[in-house]
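Batch manifest line 615
LIGAND: 2-deoxy-2-amino glucitol-6-phosphate
JOB: complex structure
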Amino acid sequence: MCGIVGYVGRRQAYPILIKGLHRLEYRGYDSAGLALVDSGGVLNVFKSKGKVAELEKFVESKDLDGTIGIAHTRWATHGEPNDVNAHPHYSDSGEIALIHNGIIENYRVLKDALIENGYKFKSDTDTEVLVNLIEYIKVSSGCTLLEAVQQALKQVVGAYAIAVVERGNQDRVIAARRSSPMVIGIGNDGDYFLASDGASIIDYTDKIVYVKDGEVVIMERDKPLKIVNLDNEKGKIDIKKLELSISQLEKGGYPHFMIKEIFEQPKTIVDCTRGRINAETRDIILSGVMDNLDKFLAARRIIFVACGTSWHASLIGEYLIEEFCRIPVEVEYASEFRYRNPVIHSDDVVIAVSQSGETADTLAAIELAKEHGAFVYGICNVIGSSIARATASGTYIHVGPEIGVASTKAFTGQVTVLTMLAVAIARAKGTITVDKAHQIAGDLLGLPSVIEETLKLNDFIADFSKIFTYAHNFIYLGRGYNYPTALEGALKLKEISYIHAEGYPAAEMKHGPIALIDSELPTIAIATPDHTYEKTASNIEEIKARGGKVITIIAKGDEQMQRISDYYIEVPVVAESLMPIVVSVPLQLLAYHIAVNKGRDVDMPRNLAKSVTVE
Ligand code: AGP
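JOB STATUS: finished
ARTIFACT:
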């Protein structure tokens, strides 16, 4: 939800911090700030409303000396986006500065207690409460800053990834996390880097430590990294290699990350299937599934827990698993699942789907499932993410970092993995023939070239999108595997163009939504060949009979659909169960171009963040 960055070493901290904020800006961007301890030990905080570029303008004339600092880009939880609520926050005395990603749920109680002890607050944030709690403990008990941080965090209910610096100390950053992500980069000349994820670290080092929940990190220039818990017991330092390249974090000549990531999909599907489909035998080998086959074969049911686009991918997973494996499946919004006291059996298998691997609601749903003894499997993109580490086993989708807030290549990667998972389990159960399994595997191997072909629609869709740029509402319709695809297409349009859009099962139109139809309300109907094709054709006719404009996504050369459509977008045809991957590409492109036509900030849409690490 927010991005945090820190540095201590021999280099000037400012350039490292500001570049790190740019790398993390997709996580939240309504205000930004940084704190530096200069060579004289003076603690300076600079912060401003708006994106990181605003902060850069704000500090242009400032003295930015300092080889130690922390920085933050915010997605507001408590307190509106403005200069005062931006991080870092000073403590009351100005001795300490702190940045925070997360939510302190008991901040009100703590704030009232601090006010009773004479503390004054400038902001409306929960974060300012934490920095003053640390100061209060340090001053009232005369303990060290580290002890004060440990004691304060014991009183905190909620999620945090924090970093703290203090006046007069040019050598040490103290950091800690619970539920919000944090990684430490080990530099090559005694310096340390801290960030919410590896994107801000890879420019300087590929040696990375994934900080675990409950750990406190002491990064001291020229001293070994120290990790302890809140009781000061030493923790294990497990240095890993960061699997990330700088080119993956750049736009590579594209105007936006989103369009780059849409065009990456032929390659990312190759990456996603690499080593998992034997090109000769067409056998599918998903190690996470094979190592836990007993759990899947004995599953009473499979429950998906996810949010947003990942929830749409999970719906497709439901169709795939029920069709191929004949195992009952339920798909739950993680945010509902975690609070509705669901029935969970120990022989349930819960599959958590998450691109970031940091979505708070999904993490909480996982913990609930584990408490009831269910086997929990993760399908994530970010290596080493919290969900990847919280689940018993899993499958990475390997589509590389997805920077655009609107998920595209991760969606098609998730559906690809779910297809392989369903086929692997169905083969083991004997609920599909080996020929069927090999045919799907062959189709998956052929998908990249089909997507390549589909991407040639880009110029046509860029031009076509101009017709609908100023529509106020859209309806997306689909049946079967393309019902979740319709939901996903609607979400893409909503979140980057700010146009209201709803997805429905096509047959549902008659149960209310058709009352909305008039010449001002375009309908996008997915009408590719499947066993409900004729039904969808009837739904399209019903809309047209009421003056609605219909844009159909159809099979190349489908003259019947061309005749009944006002506009159509032709796509190549693959197996019905793989059509969501193909059809989602023109829907991604349409949303992208409409948003660009409207001058929207496509990669960082208003009010959103790439990873929702708070409730
Ligand atoms: C998708 O375009 C959105 N950015 C959002 O719905 C996202 O899918 C959702 O927040 C879940 O994120 P996750 O996959 O990282 O858990």
